[in-house]
Amino acid sequence: MKNLILLLITLASLSCKAQSPVYGISERVKLSPNSYNKDIDNDLNKFEGTWVYQNGTTSFTIVFQKLVQYFNGDWYEDKLIGSYKYIENGTELVNYLPSFSTSKFTIDGNTVKVKESLPIICNDCSLNERRIELYFQDTERSYLSSKIIIRYVNDNGVDKIQAHLYGFGPYIPPSDDAPDSIRVPYGDYVLIKQ
To answer: Each residue of 162-190: pLDDT tens digit?
Structure first.
């Protein structure tokens, strides 16, 4: 009987494993290894799909997809990934859409921003409204760091994203004549869901 009890205790202790902590993406905490940064409130879902900005012969198309429990090498996270195409005056300047996949993307992140969040304060946002900040990459100009903050708006039944694209941080150009901005101009865009 004593051996049976020892065997059961041993098996029970071997089969137990600690649960990894789960945090909401809106919580600003230091994430521990193997924790899960989860989109508990489904803030990212409304951004999934294809969105287009159009102004004459200039267009900016973004495709977003939500990844669930993506392992980044340290922890698991829910995040938006995406890719884009930019056409200016009828000329395609950049198009990463054909190579977009869950392993190859040029936009990603899950940082929740509220009304008073820096660096971009949203005067039109309600107190509890959440925007999402994402990294935005132009791989031909990888020495430049850019981000995009997106805000979902339903305007009389039309789904829209108000986006602010901006550069941040210092950079070291690879040469003296290297461009000092990405190929999509920094600024504000209103994109409509397709």
So the answer is: 999 999 999 999 999 999 999 999 999 99
Contacts of 128 (CB under 8 A, 6+ apart): 114
CB 61 within 8 A of CB 47: no
- CA dist 50 to 10, 28, 85, 183, 188, Å? 53, 29, 11, 20, 18
DSSP one-letter string for 137-182? --GGGTTS-EEEEEEEEEETTEEEEEEEEEE-S----SSTT--SS-
- pLDDT tens per residue across span 87-109: 999 999 999 999 999 889 999 99
Whole-prediction pTM: 0.85
What is the residue extent of each domain of the chain?
Answer: 2-193
